[in-house]
Design brief:
The protein is an all-alpha fold. The chain has a domain of 80 residues. It has 22 helices and two strands. A two-stranded antiparallel sheet has the order 1-2. A hairpin with a 5-residue loop joins β1 and β2. α3 runs parallel beside α15, α4 runs antiparallel to α11 and α15 packs parallel to α18. It is globular.
């Protein structure tokens, strides 16, 4: 996977930068004191662009040298805003400086809300993983005695149903274990490849019609471009986006019985309560926004508090009913309390803080850093005429369709962030369209979404010589991109028929 990524990532970086420059236009909320001026003529404003290019360059370099991707963008965001401040101060206008400060504060508030929202959602997912929720799902699927083609459909349907509530990455990783168990038993690599593509498409499609299914849909909801219930009008186009390639690929799968080693797994104590608390948390987030006109994040963080409160009682329960597994050699059982406090989590009762500790913090910090960098780029007002060309001359439907294609090559977070900051004048159906395309467009390539990238590393089978090799790769996905593209075009067509758009 790495040698292929090294050739692909520089292209992603270049297109990311070009896309940001083409769409990074000041888009301000009504509360902002004033729209930022066009300061692109200042020589220092080019340092803002250069800082973004260099930051993304180090993200690419870090892929090979195991540098966390959050590090370059966090530093880059700080450098970008430093140059933004210098550009504004060179105007010798105190009012402009106030505009810049207001823009920074608005960005921090908006991005902070999104970050805490994600922290809560991811904490629940990590906790449910610890409670064996997804292992229990795997066991039940394999225990049903389905054929390979049935496993293909069941895992795809599960990904489509689960991803509106979980992120597409977690959904895909949870279900690929089922696919690998069947594929390893039958040594059918083609089945694993097609089922992995199916999981990527289904997870991305399912996440597109829910504010909780993808970071980009969450961004659209938080920006109040689409109301909560309106997301479900994208359900049918999203379903078509998955079904079209799924039907085509299923014809290439043998309908033989699936035999797989299936070790029993059951959910740990408290798992069902945590699932219920997750549902209550989502309900509180929706009600806070729809009824109280508060940001959804307040409902989410309240739910995080409820999870930690339940975790407090659960940890006490497990302390008194704690059955320690076989301890490492050299550790006496009478040291049980020391083990519970300081040793690895599997040797001690549940602790809600462990879930927070085990979050994918690199992804969260990358998310914060890249959005702050885009905000800084927008603050100096780059390429307004180019963005007007995109939506004014190409048209909203064509441009929004291209957003999905770009999200397969460029990370969809900065693309959607730039579109939201640009805030083009579009009819409501077009906002629904760009929400759909940004969510499902990443399925066109294996590198186009977090689910695809993760499965390239996870979908491995043992070779004849005992080595594990990747079965789902960039090239194996691209052989079926034509089928995924048919689903993508069909979903846009269905959406246009449902929504009357100009």
């Amino acid at each position: 996977m790495r040698h292929l990524d090294e050739r692909i990532l520089p292209v992603r970086v270049l297109l990311t930068v070009l896309t940001l420059l083409a769409t990074a236009v000041p888009g301000w909320t009504e509360e902002a004191a004033a729209a930022p001026p066009d300061l692109t003529g200042n020589i220092l404003s080019w340092a803002v662009v250069a800082s973004l290019v260099i930051a993304y360059g180090f993200v690419v370099w870090g892929e090979k040298h195991e540098l966390k991707k959050s590090i370059p963008v966090l530093i880059g965001a700080g450098v970008i805003w430093t140059f933004v401040a210098l550009v504004y101060h060179e105007q010798h206008d105190p009012e402009l400086v106030e505009v810049m400060k207001a823009g920074f504060e608005t960005s921090v508030i908006e991005i902070g809300e999104l970050t805490f929202f994600l922290v809560t959602a991811m904490t629940y997912v990590v906790t449910m993983q610890e409670r064996n929720v997804f292992e229990a799902i795997r066991y039940r699927m394999l225990h049903a005695g389905l054929s390979q083609r049935s496993i293909f459909w069941v895992t795809g349907l599960a990904a489509f149903v689960l991803s509106p509530f979980l992120d597409n990455l977690t959904t895909a990783l949870a279900l690929i274990s089922v696919v690998l168990a069947v594929g390893s038993a039958t040594q059918d690599r083609k089945f694993v490849t097609l089922a992995a593509i199916n999981l990527v498409v289904a997870a991305n499609a399912g996440g597109a019609f829910s504010p909780f299914g993808d970071i980009t849909t969450l961004m659209v909801w938080q920006a109040e471009k689409v109301e909560f219930l309106e997301f479900f009008s994208i359900f049918l186009p999203s379903l078509i986006n998955w079904l079209v390639p799924a039907v085509i690929m299923s014809l290439a799968i043998q309908n033989s019985d699936a035999h797989a080693k299936n070790e029993p797994a059951k959910m740990k104590h408290g798992a069902r309560v945590m699932i219920a608390l997750f549902g209550v948390t989502i309900f509180m987030a929706v009600m806070a926004h729809m009824v109280l006109d508060l940001p959804p994040v307040i409902g989410m963080t309240t739910g995080l508090g409820l999870l930690m409160l339940y975790g407090y009682f659960l940890s006490h329960h497990e302390h008194f009913h704690f059955e320690a597994p076989a301890l490492p050699s050299g550790i006496a059982f009478e040291h049980r309390e020391l083990i519970e406090r300081q040793f690895k989590p599997r040797y001690r009762p549940f602790d809600p803080m462990i879930s927070i500790k085990n979050l994918e913090w690199d992804t969260l910090l990358f998310f914060y850093g890249i959005l702050m960098a885009v905000a800084g780029l927008a603050q100096v007002g780059y390429l307004v005429k180019v963005s007007e060309l995109m939506y004014g001359h190409l048209g909203a439907t064509v441009t929004n369709s291209l957003v999905g294609v770009l999200s397969a090559i460029v990370d969809n977070i900065p693309v959607m962030s730039a579109v939201l900051r640009m805030d083009p004048e579009m009819v409501h159906g077009q906002w629904m369209l760009v929400t759909l395309t940004a969510g499902v467009g990443g399925s066109l390539l294996s590198i186009g979404s977090a689910a695809g990238v993760a499965l390239m590393g996870a979908a491995k089978m043992q070779n004849e010589d005992g080595r594990y090799v990747s079965v789902y790769t960039f090239m194996s996905h691209i052989r079926w991109t034509w089928a995924v593209a048919l689903g993508y075009l069909a979903s846009i067509g269905v959406h246009v028929m449902i929504h009357t758009m100009q």
